[in-house]
Amino acid sequence: MVSEQVLSKTKALIKDHKVFVASKSYCPYCSQTKKLLESLNANAFVVELDTEPDGSDIQAALLELTGQRTVPNVFINGEHVGGNSDLQALNSEGKLKTLLKN
Length: 102
Fold this sequence. Notes:
This protein has 102 residues and is α+β, with helices and mostly antiparallel strands. The protein has one domain: 3-Layer(aba) Sandwich (Glutaredoxin), CATH 3.40.30.10. The protein contains 5 helices and 4 strands, in the order αβαβαββαα. It has helices at 4-16, 28-39, 55-66, 84-92, 96-101, and strands at residues 19-23, 45-48, 73-76, 79-82. Helix 2 (28-39) links the parallel strand 1 (19-23) and strand 2 (45-48). The protein is globular. 26% of the residues are buried. One of its GO terms (cellular component) is cytoplasm. Residues 19-81 form the Glutaredoxin domain.
């Protein structure tokens, strides 16, 4: 069970940033996600869960909110996009740039 404080913090991270990425510094899929977003000049707010004191709690909150425990966990405009493969698919379909513009 995730504390209300961590749940509120996680919701605020999602709401307060146009692009929010929950990542882990050693994760190759996270690196691909961050590189793609950088290439599109998306000003992503990234939290490296493995370097944050409450990173495992934030990851548990994300699981509760989205059903996804894996990283990267990507949100655009407050909406859950999914992981790296979801983001790459949106890019291949030409939909990612539109999401980032809105």
